[in-house]
């Protein structure tokens, strides 16, 4: 598989690298880390990074402004990083390449592409890029650069929560260690990663003061329009608050009701009870421990709270 990928990379003089929409550090780290490796090791090739800019992560990397028409009449290889299904690919033109390569660590629900390299054991796609780099170093004397190392390290840090999540394996550590051979400023990286706007910091304080914890172990927080407006935080930005009281002793599951124009966005999280069925009952869905739903008004909010309370009660 890796040989097939290396052959494809060597064959094409133009390579376009994509990743998923609303990128996280792993999407950007694997995309831009791979791009940096290709630019360094094949200075005569043209490498594009495609996708919308993510304002909160421009300290990691910036995209190339690419006109879609640049892709339609030229031979090129397309590599899509960290994206399980084609619907989530950010940017146009990915279908027009001569060869499409999928490189991902999510379950292979949609096996798109001519060459598919999926490794669900990998913590991150960035980890897979390092794995691939070592192969290419062995076969074609690829060199790592500090910039590529910084990007790939950021990707691993993002998807493993600083090496804390259960997806962190001995292999993750070995591959991350390869990167630390290069002079990455990890202090600067961690500072940028985990710093928070003052408005958000103040709102976190408010949430920690005001969330309700029921006898059953259900945490409840209402983010009204007025409250968000008071702090100047948008509905999307408020998603960063969802785990802030997760460490509370006795908490089993929790829910945020975020008021929008004519409905409520509902964010559900759990440390045990399976909550995605509740989400499915209310125009939503997701993972067993993390889902989203919608509530039309106070009556549906009460229904959701009742259903979650019941689950928490049943869960020993
Ligand atoms: Mn990822």
Automatic annotation (TrEMBL):
Residues 230-314 form the DHHA1 domain. Gene3D superfamilies: 3.10.310.30, inorganic pyrophosphatase (n-terminal core). InterPro entries: DDH_dom, DHH_sf, DHHA1_dom, Oligoribo/pAp-PDE_c-di-AMP_PDE. Residues 15-156 form the DDH domain. GO terms for molecular function: nucleic acid binding. SUPFAM superfamilies: DHH phosphoesterases (SSF64182). It holds the Pfam family DHH. This is Bifunctional oligoribonuclease/PAP phosphatase NrnA. It comes from Salibacterium salarium. The lineage of its organism: Bacteria, Bacillati, Bacillota, Bacilli, Bacillales.
